[in-house]
Amino acid sequence: MSSLNAKNKDAFHELASEKSGSKGPKARLRNCARPMAPGTAVGGCAFDGAKVALQPITDVAHLIHAPLACEGNSWDNRGAASSGPTLWRTSFTTDLTEIDIVMGHSERKLFKAIREIKDGYAPAAIFVYSTCVTAMIGDDIDVVCKRATDEFALPVVPVNAPGFVGSKNLGNKLAGEALLKHVIGTVEPDEPGLCDINILGEFNLSGEFWQVKPLLDKLGVRVRACIPGDARYLQVASAHRSRAAMTVCSTAFVALARKMQERWDIPFFEGSFYGISGTSEALRRIADLLVKKGADPSLLHRTEILVAEEEEKVWKRLEAYRPRLEGKRVLLNTGGVKSWSVVHALMEIGMEIVGTSVKKSTLEDRERVKQTLKEENLVFESMSPRELFSLLLERKADIMLSGGRTQYIALKAKLPWLDINQERHHAYAGYEGMVQLARQIDLAIHNPMWPQVREPAPWEQALVV
Ligand code: SF4
């Protein structure tokens, strides 16, 4: 438990430095290290955050050491896509009962579950997640995992992020810590290359990364590890031999990127594959970092050629959408890296931003939003449903882009809505994704049902007469 406390402190330190910029350093640390109040984990506990961050590693069995309820439904809780294994989507839990806990059987049950998974599914590795109950009764999952690793000659990785230690965001960071401590650097790759990179915080939602990878392939840049989206265990384990890295979701794995830079001298930058200029800039920065680390300088020139070709193609394809979308007013209620990258992408196709939220965004993300929008009053923190409803009407939005939780606010305001968060069904990354985004917004705004929906209901018409 003491090592868990130290790990949490370290991760909290990261949160403090990123999130609470307006306070002094002491106040920041004091606030971030404050214990959780009951109910704070509503909307995602630390365990949930750790599992969300690691589950897309597809050939790993994810075993939840807990009573049944912590696991919930692991099938399609997010739209991360796999190009091969499906093991990651199967629910494994030790399903502890009161008898197991009272009789002290839980560690034995965990060991047995690991053996059953190894025999029945032959996974590349097993990740074991601690939860509130098993942490509170003092189960030492580190020791059980170590014993299982030695006995079964299979990597069994403890992920210490029980729900009560903090928020989902903290869980994301503890997941990175688990990879750093137990996985990354444990396998040496066969042929390390001068153009190998890591992409961190890319979840491959709806197969988004598959729209970007072909661009990197054309440049001869090899993605050694995309963590976690569509990753394989061995790719993650050998990620320390990459020459450069890009973090896509900066809240999830930026601490991991920093620590990999310190430990293995892998330089990184925070970027985005949303929008045309965002994608082009990301490709240029990847090439730049690789050349600085020893790759052939012709990579820079080849990148410029590719960017010019792709941009020309995508602008041509977007021509059809521009007159239909230009000047349309959009309210964005998302967060993190999307708070600025999607804003930028929408402005590129001529849409007008009437507001964007910056919840879960880092200080750097917030700075970028401000630079892009140049108007402070368009940026808001999270809002109550009532406030969001009023904002949509006040600012005369034509569409809201957000996650599923707020879709009914837009529909109540009789406005189109498009899912931009993790449950989305369309891939919006890369040049290809930009065309898809324009298409989906066009379909939503110009759906012929809206004029009918906005007509007064028959009984209202009767009242008017
Ligand atoms: S880990 Fe704790 S907070 Fe999270 S789901 Fe389980 S019991 Fe609830």
Looking at this protein, list some descriptive labels:
binds iron/sulfur cluster, alpha/beta, Rossmann fold, 465 residues, five-stranded parallel sheet, 3 domains, globular, single chain
User: CATH topology of the largest domain, anyone?
Assistant: Rossmann fold
Widest beta sheet: strand line-up: 11-10-9-12-13
Structural class computed from helices and strand pairing = alpha/beta
The geometry reads as: globular
Largest sheet: 5 strands, parallel
Distance between the termini: 72 Å
Number of strands: 13
By CATH, the superfamily of the largest domain comes out as Nitrogenase molybdenum iron protein domain
The small molecules bound here are:
iron/sulfur cluster
**Would you identify the CATH architecture of the largest domain?**
3-Layer(aba) Sandwich
Number of helices: 21
Unreliable stretches (pLDDT < 50, length at least 5) are: 15-23, 27-35
Number of domains: 3
Task: Please state the average pLDDT score.
Answer: 87
Helical residues, percent: 40-55%
Q: Can you identify the CATH class of the largest domain?
A: Alpha Beta
Q: For the CA atoms, what is the radius of gyration?
A: 24 Å
Strand content: 5-15%
GO molecular function: nitrogenase activity
Pfam families: Oxidored_nitro
Protein name: Nitrogenase iron-molybdenum cofactor biosynthesis protein NifE
Domain Nitrogenase/oxidoreductase component: 45-443
